[in-house]
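Worked Example 4.2. Read the sequence first, then its structure tokens.
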Amino acid sequence: MRSKLFVPASRPELFEKALASAADALSFDLEDSVADERKGEARDALRALLRSNDVARHAKVLIVRVNALDSPHFNADVDAVVQPGLDFLNLPKPESVEDVRAAASAIDRAERANGVSRPVKLLLNIESPRAFRHAAELARAHPRVAGLQLGLGDLFEPLGVARRETAAIQQAMFGLRIAAGEAGVFAYDSAFANIKDEAGFRAEAELARSMGFLGKSCIHPSQIAPANEVFRPSDEEIAHASRVVEAARDAQSKGVGAYVVDGKMIDPPFVERARELLGHAQRLGLLTNEQRTALASAAPAI
């Protein structure tokens, strides 16, 4: 999920274009981009899409950002969009463990009502000081939680923190990544509002990748390509990871705990990271036959 394209649910004319795009995931929005008087028709459009053959023909990860738990729209949103085609429900503004559990219970009910057999996961938006302080606790609140998403605009603006302040962005990213790591879920990056500033978007994406984020939100199709490029493992990284995995297998057979690959000392955390990178590269179809074989043969031995 290197790139996640934002799609207003009130614009069904964009759905097919979004499905045909190069984005790994689509995030249909029922919250900020949809006026109150159009929430109902937007829900209906998403319900139809998520139950359609159009979705079945595409391999996209499908996400819906619903309205906040304390809004009058939340329950109707969940009832409409928890359908067989949905992968993640994106929950805005969770503030407590109770919020997360209430959202999970609403999903439970909708799955039973709509005949959904594959569990819908939760992606939590971390966009307030309280949520940021308790991010790991929120992520551990229910097994449905699969990831935390940073909302820099909502987090920074009320506090008067400049959205482009690099030091603040670095601290927010690092804090969220550590919280996600503690909870065993992924961290996902925020949107970047200046569509014309590709260099700024790319720099922020590169920072996020360097901190272990899974990918970046895109508010315009022009941002998809740079996101996919930044979060794609390079050929050099893949080759190094393959050598690490092969060396780990050899070291284990000899009873060696630490060893050197490409001039770097390697021990179990580096092997685990190498396997994760190769798994990601395999899902993207980037491994050679030899690398796929090496990964498969090394897996049981590490």
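Now turn to a second chain, presented in exactly the same format:
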Amino acid sequence: MNNENKKAVVLLSGGLDSASCLAVAGRDGFSCHALSFNYGQRHGCELAAAKNVAKALGAKEHIVVSIDLRLWGGSALTADDIAVPEAGTASGIPATYVPARNTIFLSFATAWAETLGARDIFIGVNSLDYSGYPDCRPAFIEAFETCASLGTKACDEGWRFKIHAPLQKLRKDEIIRLGVSLGIDYSITHSCYDPDPSGLACGRCDSCSLRRQGFIQAGIADPTAYVKL
């Protein structure tokens, strides 16, 4: 990640997918500027994971932006009165969906990229093994790319932003195999929506379930520390 003329902003939650996305951006020769958010999420220990991932994967810099999405809640991740559901117990868009979260995150990423002189933004969304969030789908990513290009100086200067979603059409086991091939230590990542006070993954939420099944299907030992189930 030492090509200063090929800069990218990479959204980094500290989870398995975003770590894999950062590794792919580095593999592809980008100087990576990692961006995380302290948005009032109940699984705040993911921010410590993001810091460790950014350092381990050689990000050029890592910024954590604080915004308070608990002000209006609307999600099990930002409201104490909404429980995190166990995997497979809900239909439709799950309670863990945070309203417009990726729209907000990509807007910040676009602003930073414009300031850096970067034309590339990476996000670790997936639309195969995922929880069904509408802001993870290809149509949204394509639409935001157009929005970013029209609403910034890119429009007047005749260039476009590129929103990279390299994991978009990969299964979780494929993502894990890819990450392992790129040298990721997944033990430093955090995916759980409802960890215990010590940070142990619950093993029951949708994110834990997808992660566990991914390691099983990949035939790779899961390094995650779960509470005793």
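Notes for the reader: The first strand starts at residue 7 and ends at 11. Residues 45 and 199 are 6 Å apart (CA to CA).
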